Amino acid sequence: MAKELTSKSYIDHHLTNLTCGKTESVGWTCDHNYYDEMGFMAFHVDSITISILLGVAFVALFKLIKLNPADQKPTRMQNFVEMCVEFVNENIKSIFGSTDNKLIGPLALTVLIWVFFMNLMDLIPVDFLPELTKQVSYASGIVDDPNDAYFKFVPTTDPNITLGMALGVFILTIFYSIKIKGLGGFIAELTLHPFGKFAIPFNFALEIMQLLAKPLSLGLRLFGNLYAGEMIFILIALLMFFQSAVFGVLGLGLHLLWALFHILVVSLQAFIFMVLTILYLSMAHETGDH
Amino acid sequence: MEQSVIYIGAGLMLGLGAIGSAVGLGVLGSKFMEGIARQPELRPFLLTNFFIVLALVEAIPIISMVFGLYLLFAV
Q1: Dist. CA A80–CA A178, nearest whole Å
Q2: In whole angstroms, what is the distance from residue A208 CA to residue A190 CA?
Q3: Once rounded to an integer, what is the mean pLDDT over residues B8-19?
Q4: In angstroms, rounded to a whole number, what is the distance separating the alpha carbons of residues B29 and B33?
Q5: What residues of chain A lie within 8 A of the CB of B56, using their CB?
Q6: Which one, out of A171, A187, A201, A244, has a CA that is 20 to 30 A from the CA of A87?
Q7: A224/B62 Cβ within 8 A
């Protein structure tokens, strides 16, 4: 099933994940042709491995750096790590105020750096790694047709990853609001809020909608920005279809411009994800009526 | 017929999303400038909040742009 190279197949190739799943006919397979049969039991193997690798890299980076004692000159890595920790600490203090919650610091630091690392993968030129996987998997015989080798390198362009993290934050907010306010307090907050006791169904609808909008917008915002960035990179790469030097140079210039702008988007989205995580957790801790 | 409807839909998505984010950022930018003009020493504080609200305003238009581009090119 050799697909001839059209712009649509090029885009589709770069946007499909390497999914391995259980199918009735073939059992566990990573062949994309059985994608429809996989149904629920399908895993985006590429997003999972890349995000785990980046998580390990983050933990290793922050654990293994050489810490000079206070009287000596700090090493460069130590400065970077201290800068990140202070930045996170300052944001927590400004948003959260004082708190005895010991989870919020490490959680915010992890969210910031992990999401930042995942977003950074988007700055690698769009065709470099997929082409590499095509040749490697074709040469090693995993795939009989090079176009069947899919590998999406930016985990945050996969909605499962971003919505999964947003779900984690959502569960934490529910846990902490029940722990701080008690189940009764939490239910009261959901039903009594804007208009007091008599308009409970209306209050409940309003509060539930707001409660669900937070994680959904948190996850989709990160996904939307990174997916749009990836899509733009792919569309710029499509300029090379014209096989003419003018479009090639134009494509290169556009790619450079968009990469520079994308550096801002990458760091800003990681920062926003952290700030909103802290904000939602601080709102869960708030006991005064707002 | 089905293909042309998709193009109309994608065009609407991209256009309306762009209007939303343009107006939102215009208002945000003007208020930001006003805040700095009134109190220049607050600039760093205003700048971080400007970026926070910028990302919040951009969220929905970017998502509609993503779906628009996907419809336009990959459907």
Answers
A1: 37
A2: 7
A3: 92
A4: 6
A5: 221, 272
A6: A171
A7: yes
> How would DSSP label each residue in A116-151?
HHHHHGGGS-TTHHHHHHHHHHHHTTS-SSGGG---
In a 3-state reduction of DSSP, which class is residue A22? strand
Active-site residue, selected from the candidate residues A9, A33, A89, A217:
A217
How far the first Cα of chain A sits from its last, in Å, is 61
pTM across the whole model: 0.83
What is chain A's alpha carbon radius of gyration, rounded to the nearest angstrom? 23
Which residues of chain B make contact with A264, given a CB cutoff of 8 A? none
Q: What is the per-residue burial (b if ≥16 Cβ within 10 Å, else e) of B32-53?
A: beebeeeeeeeeeebeeebbbe
Q: Is A234 exposed, middle or buried (0-12, 13-18, 19+ CB in 10 A)?
A: buried
Q: What is the mean pLDDT of chain A?
A: 84
Residue in A12, A225, A263 to test binding to B, most B beta-carbons within 10 Å? A225
Task: Report ipTM (2 d.p.).
Answer: 0.70
CB contact at 8 A, A236 and A254: yes
Cβ within 8 Å, pair B55-A272: yes
